[in-house]
Amino acid sequence: MANDDETDKPLSVLGVQGPAQDFLAFCAEERERRLNCGESFDETLFDEAVALVRRRLDALAGEEVQ
Questions:
Q1: DSSP letter, residue 15
Q2: DSSP labels, 21-47
Q3: Which uninterrupted H or E stretch holds 52?
């Protein structure tokens, strides 16, 4: 399995454009908000969900280029 930025840092916006960039910016703010709200928050699950959506957005962006 590849060890890349998307796996290690799902909220990284390096090399990301368009809707994916907007999505990741929203997720970074939402993650921070949830961490600071004092309620229970599963960071690992959140990061996994973001990574899953990011991979899908990257795949869709690759399809548009062809």
A1: T
A2: HHHHHHHHHHHHHHHHSSS---HHHHH
A3: helix 43-65
Residue 1 one-letter amino acid: M
Token readout for 27 is 């997720």
Tokens encoding 6? 């998307």
Highest mean pLDDT among 3-7, 9-13, 30-34, 53-57: 30-34
List pLDDT tens digits, range 22-56: 888 999 999 999 999 999 999 999 999 999 998 88
If one counts every other C-beta atom within 10 angstroms of the C-beta of residue 33, the result is: 10
Q: Rounded distance, CA 8 to CA 66, Å?
A: 28
41: amino acid identity, one letter: F
Torsion sign, CA atoms 20, 58, 11, 43: positive
